[in-house]
Structure formats: C-alpha cells, structure tokens
Amino acid sequence: MEKLPYAKRTVRRVVGLMSGTSADGVDAALVEIRGEPDAPGTALLAFENTPYPGPVRQEIFEMFDTPVATADRLARLNFLLGEIYAERALKVIRAAGLTPEEIDCVGSHGQTIYHQPVKELLYSRESGCTMQIGEGAVIAQRLGVPCVSDFRTADIAAGGQGAPLVPLTEYLLYRRQDDGVLLQNIGGIGNITAIPPGAKPEEVTAFDTGPGNMLIDCLAFHYSGGRLTMDAGGQMAGRGRVNPKLLQMLAEDPYYRREPPKTTGREYFGSGYVQRILSYQAGMAISDEDTIATVTCLTAWSVTESCRRFVLPFCRAGEMLVGGGGSYNPVLMGFLKKEMEKLSVSVKTQEEKGFHSDAKEAVAFALLADRTMQGLFGNLPRATGAESRAVLGKISFP
C-alpha cells in the first residue's frame, strides 16, 4: 500500500544518526513519533552505538587539520561516511525487528569537519560557515527512504551560529509547567539548555558552555601514547588532584565570559589548546594525573559558571539533567554535583530520570528530521542568534 503524504501520518518511524565532536562513532536511534509535531509522543524502539573503524577515525581527525584536508580527500570521506551511516541505520532498523520499508525517513547530523560560525569578511561579504559530511543522498539510496542531512547550514544562512540545534527538541520533550529544568549535555563540547517554568519556545536559552570531554580525551590519548581515546570512568583523574593555579589559568579564557548566544568546537578547544595545556604542565611540573583531574574539574566549573552568569538569573530551576559521555565519568559528575549544590540545583543523569543519555542526541535529530519533512522550523533564534526561524536540513530522496 502506498504511504500517506508525510504530514498526514499520525505515526512516523524515524532513524536519527549522530556523530559528535569526539568522532568516536555513530549513534543510531530508531524513534516512533506520534501525534502533532509541536507536542510529540516518542518511543525509542532501538538504539545502537557503533565505533568508527580505526582507519576511518584517523582519516576524520586528519580532516580536522585544514592544511591537510584537500578537496579530494574530503569528497571521498563524505561518500564513505554516507555508506557507513546507511549501514548503521540499517543495523538499528534490524535491531528493532523492522525493515527499511517500514521507516518513514532518516535524519543524519553527519560528522562536523569544520565549524566557524563567527562572521568573517571574504571578498567584501560577511558570513559564518560550517561543514558536516556523510552524504545524505547515499543514505537515501541505500535505504530507499528520504534522508534529511546538513542541518546547521540553514541557521547560519539566517545569521545564526548553526548551533545548538538540540534545544528545540529538548523543549518539546522536557518542558514543565511548575518548575524550570536545565539540560546539560557533556559530549566533546558541553552545552546547556535552560527551560523556564511554563516557557514558550522563544523563552528557551541554550549555548555551549565550553569543553566537555574533548580536552580530557586528547590528554588521555597523549599520555597513553595513543593507546587510550578517553579517560574511561575517570580513572586517571581519580588518581590525581586538581591544581588550583592551572585551573585558574584555564578559567581565565575569555570564552567563559562571552555572552550567549555562543557556540564553540574543535577549532577553539582543539589541538592548539591542548598544546598550551601541555606547555603549562611542563612549566609548572604538574603530573599527568593532576593535569587530567584539573581539566576534568574545568569542565564542571565551566558548566557551573555558565549557570551562575547566564542562566539562573532568569530561569528558576531546581534540577539539572546530564547526558552525553561525560555523565558516565564519576569524577566529573562528582565535581559537577558539588559545584551545582552551591547554586541549590540538584544534578541527576538522564538514566536516573528514566531516559537514555547515549541516545538523546540521535533522538533529537530524528525529531528535527520529522519537523523538516513537514516544513516546520527546527531552530530557536534565541539559542543560535539567527535572525529568524528556519526549516533545517536538506532532503535527499531515493
């Protein structure tokens, strides 16, 4: 039987695909969405996290180095990731006991290779820019269903920073009438969404708080000679002590005082920033464990400082829900709980509230794809700095 036009379907099954700043793999969520898009009911039918193959991850990291990222290598990697994302989508569909014919669309964030949202002058014209790769047309052809990809460009074209985009979906799923809620994601970069009690969409504030796991991961990789890609379970940080002098030096970075809307990424807190930390470490004779403990504390401090400066003065909230890989680091969570207690805000993980930390962003891009397929806006201008609402993404049909 031929399917109804997308906007008339009361039940939609959508695959959301996410690969974050850490570039450690692909999160794939199969979500069943019911009812109206502005008040959706959702059910997570299946979730799969699959690491990138080692050589593919290495190629991605080489493409972060702009002098190395030639057009031919980017083009090839764009199509290769499209194939990988299609395989991951098919895997999660099968895990749910379904077939591609029973899926309505795919929403793929892609892999961010470059993100520079601050407007720069080029040939007498000012513009920000961003690039996510993982060809949507390949995904659509392999699965035989429409694929929405390249979500961030429409917001940048509207004068925004192309991020954060998850806040609208958080508003749809987590808003409360009687109290505000803070949603903190700790992936490679940390980002927060503040939803006041009984808020309208335009009253939601969201921005990047600073580094999440990125500095921790890079230092763990460096200290282990490439053997480790992260400080799993905070084991290295747990053996160290926070160095107050180094923490103060890092906390003086001007990003933390910049007013929202703001977004950041590997271009700011990447390899060059890590080299500065290593230089500080050598000059101050700090141990590897103490350095890891200090940058772990920095992430918790940056979240708390963001709340103190930019969130709690306007948003009454007694609870923060934390998701992302950082929520599995007990040392980081210990620092965060201790600091947020000073602001009278309790900290809980997504799992403690019955949600799924790993699946959260993949679910978000399934919801955003669902809105795009219905011609509905997907950004919050207050969060991204855009001049207007925008329908996000580009649709590839099989």
The whole-number mean of residue pLDDT values reads 95
Order of SSEs:
EEEHHEEHEHHEEEHHHHHHEHEHHE
Strand content: 15-25%
Give the end-to-end Cα distance, rounded to a whole number of Å: 18 Å
CA-based shape: globular
How many individual β-strands?
12
With helices defined by DSSP (H or I, 4 residues minimum), what is the helix count?
A: 14
Question: Which radius of gyration do the C-alpha atoms yield?
Answer: 20 Å
- Helix-residue proportion: 25-40%
User: From the coordinates shown, what is the CATH architecture of the largest domain?
Assistant: 2-Layer Sandwich
Number of domains: 2
Uncertain segments are none
User: Any idea of the CATH topology of the largest domain?
Assistant: Nucleotidyltransferase, domain 5
Structural class, please? alpha/beta
Largest sheet: 7 strands, mixed
For the record, the CATH class of the largest domain is Alpha Beta
CATH superfamily of the largest domain: ATPase, nucleotide binding domain
What descriptive keywords fit this protein?
alpha/beta; Nucleotidyltransferase, domain 5; 2 domains; 5-stranded mixed sheet
What does this structure look like?
With about 400 residues, the protein is α/β, with parallel strands linked by helices. It has two domains: about 5-165 and about 360-395, Nucleotidyltransferase, domain 5, CATH 3.30.420; about 175-355, Nucleotidyltransferase, domain 5 (2-Layer Sandwich), CATH 3.30.420. About 40% of the residues lie in helices and about 25% in strands. It is built from 14 helices and twelve strands. The strands form two sheets. Strands 1, 2, 3, 4, 5, 6 and 12 form a seven-stranded mixed beta sheet that branches. Strands 9-8-7-10-11 form a five-stranded mixed beta sheet, sandwiched between helices. It is globular and about 70 Å long. The two termini are about 20 Å apart. About 50% of the residues are buried.
